[in-house]
TrEMBL record:
Name of this chain's protein: NADH dehydrogenase [ubiquinone] 1 beta subcomplex subunit 8, mitochondrial
Entry keyword annotation includes Aminoacyl-tRNA synthetase: no
Annotated Gene Ontology cellular component terms: mitochondrion
Organism of derivation: Musca domestica (House fly)
Keywords tagged on the record: Membrane, Transmembrane, Transmembrane helix
Gene name per UniProt: 101898497
Membrane spanning residue stretches: 131-149
Any matching Pfam family: NDUF_B8
Keyword Transferase: no
Lineage top rank: taxon: Eukaryota
């Protein structure tokens, strides 16, 4: 605890003399890799090869996103669809918490394919038509039962309340 307090006092003294140190420390802890910032859309073959090398891809594999104004620039268009959970969990990844290796290019929409998002790693068990037929069959069955049993009311039968001595008032609220 004492070493923690001494470290805190040292940082206070250091930043009191030079406040730029604290700003620079905050900037360097951001963890943003400037090498992966997308550049401008490649126009020539030399620019395409340089961009492919930048993203650790072969020039034959490299295909950038279309230059349609969305701001992807020279970022490679990677095929997607399978989430991270489809990867082998026992492979010795460089970053096992992300199931990713060093210099592996992120997908542009990697936030959609992480393990805490919905993904469909395998095709569904049945075709969509089977699911729709099951749903419509259940709904049609409920509708048929509703109309078929419409005449058979489901309530507790109750007779008219019977009072002793018909025609006589049992409770009056008048003062005598």
């Amino acid at each position: 605890m004492a070493s923690l307090m001494n470290t805190f006092k040292f940082v206070q003294k250091l930043t009191a003399n030079n406040p730029a140190v604290l700003r620079q420390a905050a900037r360097s802890m951001a963890g943003w890799n400037k090498d992966y910032k997308a550049g401008k859309f490649p126009q020539s073959d030399a620019e395409r090869e340089a961009a492919a090398k930048k993203y650790f891809l072969l020039p034959e594999e490299y295909k950038p996103y279309a230059d349609n104004g969305l701001g992807y620039g020279d970022y490679p268009e990677l095929k997607g669809g399978l989430g991270i959970e489809a990867r082998d969990p026992f492979y010795p990844y460089d970053f096992p918490e992300l199931k990713r290796n060093l210099h592996e290019t992120f997908h542009a929409e990697s936030d959609l394919y992480s393990e805490d998002r919905w993904s469909q790693p395998a095709p569904p068990r049945y075709a969509n038509s089977t699911y729709w037929l099951g749903f419509l069959g259940c709904m049609a069955g409920c509708l048929v039962l509703y109309y078929w049993l419409e005449n058979y009311r489901m309530y507790r039968p109750v007779a008219v309340k019977q009072y002793p001595g018909d025609g006589r008032k049992h409770y009056t609220f008048e003062t005598n």
